[in-house]
Specification:
Length: 67
């Protein structure tokens, strides 16, 4: 599970993201710089790169629908 937020997110700030992740087994967190709540709009290249990297690390069974 990947949890992402921006360093300027007012809805889910990094501190809340880390708290959420602490309650989820195997959760990975990522905080994008110079981004708020709409990561995919504000930092689309960084968002896509992070998501693709995360998906590539997953077992093949989880990626079948992304190929």
């Amino acid at each position: 599970m990947l949890l992402m937020t921006g360093d300027a997110d007012l809805y889910i700030p990094p501190s809340v993201l880390r708290l959420q992740a602490s309650h989820l087994a195997q959760a990975e967190t990522l905080v994008l710089r110079e981004a708020g709540h709409a990561l995919n709009w504000e930092q689309p290249e960084a968002f896509n790169a992070a998501l693709l990297l995360f998906l590539q690390k997953q077992p093949d069974a989880h990626l079948a629908s992304f190929r």
